[in-house]
Structure formats: C-alpha cells, structure tokens
Amino acid sequence: MTEASQQTAPDAQATRNQWWDVWDQFKTHSGAMVGLVVFLIIVFGVFIGPFIWTADPQAIPSVVDMIKTRDFRPIYTALWDPSAKVSWANPLGTDNLARDNLARLMSGGRVSIAVGLTAMVLSIVLGSLIGVLAGYFKRMDGPLMRLTDLFLALPLLPLILVASLLFREPLANMFGTEGGIFVLIVSLIGITSWMQTARIVRGDVLALKEREFVLAARSIGTSDRNMITRHVLPNVMSPIMVSATLGIASAIITESALSFLGFGFPPDFPTWGRLLNDSVDRMVSYPERVIWPGTLISLTVLSVNYMGDGLRDALDPRIRGR
User: Fold this and answer.
1) Which residues contact 68 (CB under 8 A, 6 or more apart)?
2) 263 phi/psi in degrees, rounded to 5
3) Residue 90 and residue 98: Cα distance in Å, rounded?
4) Distance CA 102, CA 93 (A)
5) How many C-alpha atoms does 175 have within 13 Å on its Cβ side?
6) Cα distance between residue 186 and residue 190, in whole Å
7) pTM of the model
8) In angstroms, rounded to a whole number, what is the distance separating the alpha carbons of residues 79 and 253?
9) Phi, psi at 270, each rounded to 5°
10) pLDDT reading at 14 higher than 70
11) Is 221 left (phi over 0), alpha (psi -120 to 50) or beta?
C-alpha cells in the first residue's frame, strides 16, 4: 500500500459526518423506522394525493337533483354500506352535504400537519431562546424560570379557548378568515408549549458552561454572542431536535381538540379535528366518518412519538454504537 493510500483512508474516516453515525443508530430503532415510514406515507398522501385524487373537497354535487327526486342515498354513503349506491366516485363515502370524504381527509391533513409544523417551530424557537438565556446568563435565570413556572401553572386549554374567542375577529379582519384562524391557532399553540423545551435546554446549558472547551473559549476573550452561537447552541441541538419531533404531535393534538370543540377553523374549512366534530352527530349510523380522521390523527401522533424516541437514542453518545 502506498503512502498516499495510507493517508487517504484515515482522512476519509476522519471526515465522516457525525450525522451519518446518528442515522446509522436511528436505523437500528425498529419503531422509529416504522414511524418514519408511516409519517412519510401520511405526508405524501395529504400533499401529493390531491394531484392524483382531484375531487373538490368543497364541492356539493347535484343537491338540487337530490331534492327534486328525494333520493338522498348518496349522502353518508360508504363503500361497504349495503343500502347505499356503491360508487368508486366516492371510495370513502360522502358527508352530510355529499362532499367527498377522501378529498376532505387530504385537505384536512394538509392543514393539521401545517399547523403542527409551524407551531412546533414557534415553540422551539421560544423555548430554545429562553432556555439558552436562562442557562448562560445567571442574572436572567431567576426571572425567566419564574416566567416558565407561571406558564406551566396556567390552565392552558381554557386559556387557549378564551384567547381564541378574543382574537378571532381582529385576526380574521387582518389576514382573512382562514389566514387569521391559522395565525391565531399557531400562535396560541406555540406560545403555550415552549416551557418544557426551555427547561431542558437550560439544564444542558448549565452543564456546558463548566466544560473545558467553553472555559478555554472564554479565556481567550470570546464574546458572549459567539460563545452562544458557536459553542453552546450547537451542543444542545440534540434535546432541541427531540423536543421538535414531540412538539409536532402535541400541536396536532391541540389543533384537533380545538377544532373538535368548535374553536378552530370554520365549518367549511376541513381539518381532521373539524371532520371529527362534523361526524359526531351521526357516529352511530356512520362510524366510518369518525374512524378515518381519528385513525389518521392517531397514526400521525404515534409515528412522530416513535421518531422522537429513535432520535433521542441516536443523538445520545452513551447509546450510539451499541
């Protein structure tokens, strides 16, 4: 073996990105891989599916004809309903206004997942900022942690419901009906779900402040801003990423609960929670209308939680390599 080849192999091994090690460890977690596959299938279905299944989720077909003929059998139909007109035009049946359930599930999934992702980003930014500031600056630790304790002590769901009633109309006038409700729900969920991330990040920052590389960087006159951005924040990305995955699930559940209670998006704007709310009155006669959105919510939340477990194990250096 030549000298050049002997040097190339160690160099290639040394330059291997640590995220490949994280991915290798993540792949060994079977539940996380199953969760990743399920989540990608759901995301593909709700975002790419409408280009394949082009039915309009808001279309109300032939209502006048049904009234004239008094033939309301297409309403609430399902493929396995023996009394219904079986039609592949509506493979999952229709709702009480003869709108296609499959199209509404995909449209509602886009809204629910978009709310989950956006609210997660807001909560992670707030929680990381407060956690880093509280952990790094001793004089800010007390006030910020007391603020965190205050938010943890608040009854969050009643607070969200009251805020939804107070700010719904002003935001709707400012951003439009759907846009205003989206901004309102994302803001409410993000502002009320940052506390756990802040406390986790604060604990890690307190431990990092006493590490040798941080003390060495401080000894050469590194500014606080560079210390946080270059040394502290990159080393607390592991708990932040785990909190992000779990935050998606929490945000989706909260949005679904708000829509189910009637405080979310308007009735003609489908989300998974709204579809559940619309189906409750006829749940006994047509249980499939509750089963489909409930199953999608459960699968999404469960898959994200499993992904969070796998990511936590993969990012833990004490477990990586076992």
Assistant:
1) none
2) -105, 10
3) 9
4) 8
5) 10
6) 6
7) 0.79
8) 29
9) -75, 135
10) no
11) left
Can you tell me which residue has the tokens 């593909």? 44
Q: Which pLDDT tens digit goes with each residue over 171-211?
A: 888 888 778 888 888 998 889 889 999 999 999 898 888 88
Strand partners, 94: 100
* Surface-to-core class of residue 294, CB atoms within 10 Å of its CB (0-12 exposed, 13-18 middle, 19+ buried): middle
Which of 71, 108, 112, 78 shows the shortest CA–CA distance to 95?
78
- Dist. CA 212–CA 27, nearest whole Å: 32
| Residues recorded for the chain | 322
Closest CA to 255 of 236, 269, 240, 235: 269
Strand residue runs (E) in 173-314: none
Alpha-carbon dihedral 255, 258, 259, 265, rounded to 10 degrees:
-80
Query: Is 178 in a helix, a strand, or coil?
Result: helix
Give the 3-state secondary structure of residue 94.
Answer: strand
Give how far the C-alpha of residue 66 lies from the chain's centroid of Cα atoms, to the nearest Å.
40
Indicate the DSSP class of residue 229: I
**Contacting residues for 160 by C-beta, under 8 A, at least 6 apart:** 188, 189, 192, 254, 258, 263
Tell me the pLDDT tens digit for each residue of 85-95.
Answer: 545 667 777 77
- Structure token pair of residue 108: 């509602």
The single residue listed with the structure tokens 């995220």 is 19
Nearest 10 degrees: CA dihedral of 32, 36, 42, 44?
A: 180
Q: How far apart are CA 255 and CA 264, in angstroms?
A: 7
Contact 42, 300 (CB under 8 A): yes
Nearest to 232 by CA among 204, 200, 194: 204
Its sign, for the CA torsion 288, 290, 293, 298, is: negative
